[in-house]
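Handout, page 2. Input:
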Amino acid sequence: VIMTTSPPLFTGFVALPFGTLLDIPWVLDIRDVWIDLSVSLGFISKGGLAERLSKAYRTRELMIASLVTVTTEETVNVLNREYGAETPYAVVPNGVDVDSFEPRDQKDIDDPVMIYTGTIGHCQALESCLEAMSYITDPSLTFRIVGDGDLRQRLEQMVRELGIEDRVEFTGFVSREQVPEMLSQATIGIAPIKADESLRYAVPTKLYEYMACTLPVIAVGEGAIEQLVETSDAGFVAEEDPEDIAAHIDALVSDPEQRRELGTNGRSYVIEHYDRQGIAVDFSDRLSTLISEDHGRTERPPA
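Output:
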């Protein structure tokens, strides 16, 4: 079996000859819908040459692949609407190594911290989260932004303009090994995604990590991220509106018992559904089935 993952979009070039000429099973792993997202964010022109060529190539991939793996059910819906391909799909979600993210200390804390970890980029609704800091009622709350990205300087300028430099901390890039400890020192985890149709499929990995640490979460976004938070009962889903985000922050900061309950719900849900080891075992079984079925159709030496 050959497996390719995208983005980048054209990694499948290496598999096309084998999938077409040699009939070796090809697993096409699509981590995000890069084409639609790039159009929505204005990186490529809608209906332009880049979009048309990219979608023609993706259509060809979907015709040849033996199995398409995606991270959320919403991604399946997006691909079906856009391409209508009949290729079998499997949802292989992003997960978390639950043993690396220990439950945080449940004691009450004097100085609450809301944490964000990950890319500071165009898909994250961090601007609304920063504006929310002007509306929250607890002046002791610190918003810690862990990571780096294209929009960091813009957000730092925004913090200065809002006059909240003493309440927002940019740590910059940190190693993966530091993240569990930083989460264990936080009070709330926030995962903001812009309310855009092209992002309805997305669930950021950070959300699973917050939940594994028993952090109550505030999600901003629609679609898959909204469904996960509501189904797990691990936190709140806020609109992409500073005042609404602030209201949810205030609710969690002022209610330690609710924080404990939501945090416990989140960790239990992640252990049951998003433990990376369990996901790997399920995926291994699916690959074994795919290979067995393929060998049943065509006799040839093992690849």
